[in-house]
Amino acid sequence: MSIQKWNDRYRAGEQVFRDPAPLVEKFAGNLAPGVALDLACGPGRNALFLAARGWEVTAVDGSPIAIDLLRERARSENLSSEARIADLERAEFEIAPASYDLICSCYYFQRDLIPALKNGVKPGGLAIVIVHLMDSGEIQPNPYRARAGELREYFSDWTVLHDYEGQPHESCHAHQVAELVARKPDLSGRSNTRSD
Description:
CATH class: Alpha Beta
Strand content: 25-35%
Distance between the termini: 40 Å
């Protein structure tokens, strides 16, 4: 879907949620705050959830309307979150290597962004990723939906904490999803994302 269509949807009040994705709440809710990146953040429900818990969050989305909604809510709730307008498909945002304790990418799939996402997580840090899956009848590759097992393959060299494929846990999504939470190996033996 084009950024203009997302702008139109957000203007109409569609896909504007206050609660974080359940997977983000479950796995990040009890982590000690650190530095987080929320890719394709939309109006910022996950970014603001993290900011409310003390995280230093950078939120990125291509939709100016989504970023305006995020900033407005952050102001009204007195939360600090850096929000950037950037088209990820056009590589308008560069993920700095080993800079984030947590990177979230929920309901956004861009194959060529995954290596940079993985590289951007600090050793011992987490990635929380949710993507839509291709329909069972689809034969040709779909640029916006993953094949069954594909997301897991990308993180086969990480410690997988959660791996699920099936019906979405949020009623606002019609397609099946793949959910993955994985920890980047830390050869020093330390973990940057400890629980309190």
